[in-house]
């Protein structure tokens, strides 16, 4: 094989590979754009995760406060029922349901 043959083969390969290289370059750019978008989405998800965690803490705190208040109100209601029952019995009234 002569140098001329090698040059011709090289040119032929260059001509055949050029469209493939252009296509790969385009795909590379697309992948880079998608990578940036995924990175932004990942950051957004991380922020949302932190917000959800904070909301969960607040909800647990509110639930605890609610349970405490309901316990206090239930205790007060039971005390009032006993008191009314004693008053009704003392006055000779028919006990209410």
Structure notes:
The model has no long low-confidence stretch (mean pLDDT 94). This protein is mainly α. The longest helix has 89 residues, at 3-91. It is 92% helix and 0% strand. It has one domain (1-68). It has one helix and no strands. It has one helix spanning 3-91. The relative contact order is 0.04.
Question: Which descriptors apply to this entry?
Answer:
single chain; 97 residues; mainly alpha; rod-shaped
Number of strands: 0
Which class best fits the helix and strand makeup? mainly alpha
First-residue to last-residue Cα separation: 113 Å
List segments where confidence is low: pLDDT < 50 over at least 5 consecutive residues.
Answer: none
The percentage of residues in β strands lies in: under 5%
Oligomer: single chain
Q: Considering DSSP H and I runs of 4 or more, what fraction of the residues is helical?
A: over 70%
> What is Rg?
40 Å
Task: Give, in order, the helices and strands.
Answer: H
Largest sheet: none
Shape: rod-shaped
Instruction: Please state the average pLDDT score.
Output: 94
Number of helices: 1
Count of structural domains: 1
């Amino acid at each position: 094989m002569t140098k001329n043959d090698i040059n011709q083969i090289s040119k032929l390969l260059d001509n055949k590979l050029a469209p493939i290289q252009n296509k790969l370059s385009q795909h590379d750019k697309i992948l880079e754009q998608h990578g940036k978008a995924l990175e932004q989405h990942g950051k957004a998800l991380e922020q949302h995760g932190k917000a959800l965690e904070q909301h969960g803490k607040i909800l647990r705190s509110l639930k605890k406060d609610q349970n405490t208040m309901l316990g206090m109100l239930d205790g007060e209601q039971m005390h009032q029922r006993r008191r009314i029952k004693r008053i009704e019995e003392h006055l000779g009234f028919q006990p209410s349901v």
